[in-house]
Amino acid sequence: MPEAKSNPRFVLVRTSHPGNIGSAARAIRTMGFERLELVNPARFPDPEAEALAVGAPGVLEHAGVHDALPDALAGCHLVMGLSARRRGITLPELTPREAALQALDAMARGEQVAMLFGNESSGLDNQELAHCHAMVRIPSVEDFSSLNLAQAVQVMAYELRMASLGEDMPATSLPQDAPADAAQMEQFFVHLAQMLDAIDFHKGRSPETITLRLRKLFPSARPDERELRILHGILSDAMRTAKKS
Q1: What is the pLDDT of residue 10?
Q2: What average pLDDT does range 74-86 have in this prediction?
Q3: Is the pLDDT score of 158 beyond 90?
Q4: Is the pLDDT of residue 234 over 60?
Q5: d(CA 61, CA 21)
Q6: Which tens digits make up the pLDDT trace of 29-75?
Q7: Residue closest to 129 by CA, chosen among 184, 91, 155
């Protein structure tokens, strides 16, 4: 299996049909990738998945199965969500080709990358997109824009493969501290939510809108581990002050 940091994760969330898991496994294997992560699949393992993964049983054998999305993204520094719907979420919007180049650039810096795919009928919801740094839209026709899940996986895997074979590689940035990974960011957001509750920031209003906006703001800044420790310190001080008052 390729080295983890040069092997992007293909993460399927809430997959309804096991056949799509098998077809997705075959799709990524044909492009030279092997890392498949599943979050709350309706049925897995399943004979239908095995039948449609013909030629790529190893991908299914090593697939991770998770109860929660942050677990599937642990260690990732760049997460891109495939979606045909904008859903009112303000994220940078990329084509698969642009996303592939950014992914290769990140992997060249030693970062781990995940491509996130939602449920067949509903796609990625707002809470799932909140874990993403960018949204990837396959430029299909407007009146019939929804691709089959395995087809979308194949398109993204193909673009990653072509980008890796291309001569015009993206320029790698100067050495820098790696950004905090998805698990570290999730711990920060839990701490942030606790602090906002401690200071009664929401004042009885639903926290969902502000939470989604903050989940967009901080990942776009790509804080590294040291910067995240500073932010944790600020949150802890704010909570202590609120408790005293």
Answers
A1: 98
A2: 90
A3: yes
A4: yes
A5: 12
A6: 999 999 999 999 999 999 999 999 999 999 999 999 999 999 999 99
A7: 91
Task: Write out the chain in H/E/C secondary structure.
Answer: CCCHHHCCEEEEECCCCHHHHHHHHHHHHHCCCCCEEEECCCCCCCHHHHHHCCCCHHHHHCCEEECCHHHHCCCCCEEEEECCCCCCCCCCEECHHHHHHHHHHHHHCCCCEEEEECECCCECCHHHHCCCCEEECCCCCHHHCCCCHHHHHHHHHHHHHHHHHCCCCCCCCCCCCCECCHHHHHHHHHHHHHHHHHCCCCCCCCCHHHHHHHHHHHHHHCCEHHHHHHHHHHHHHHHHHHHHC
d(C-alpha 90, C-alpha 79), whole Å: 15
Instruction: Over range 153-165, report the average pLDDT.
Output: 96
- Tell me how many degrees the CA angle 115-24-67 measures, rounded to the nearest 5: 65
pLDDT at 171: 46
Residue 40 exposed, middle or buried by CB count within 10 Å (0-12, 13-18, 19+): middle
CB 131 within 8 A of CB 70: yes
Q: At what angle do helices 96-108 and 149-165 cross, to 10 degrees?
A: 50
What confidence tens digit (pLDDT) does each residue in 110-139 have?
999 999 999 999 999 999 999 999 999 999
Q: What angle do CA 106, 184, 7 make, to 5 degrees?
A: 35
Task: Tell me how crowded residue 1 is: count the other CB atoms within 10 A of its CB.
Answer: 10
Residue 17 has pLDDT above 90, yes or no: yes
Question: Which residues, in sequence order, are CB contacts of 87 under 8 Å at separation 6+?
Answer: 125, 126, 129
Has residue 91 got a pLDDT over 90? no
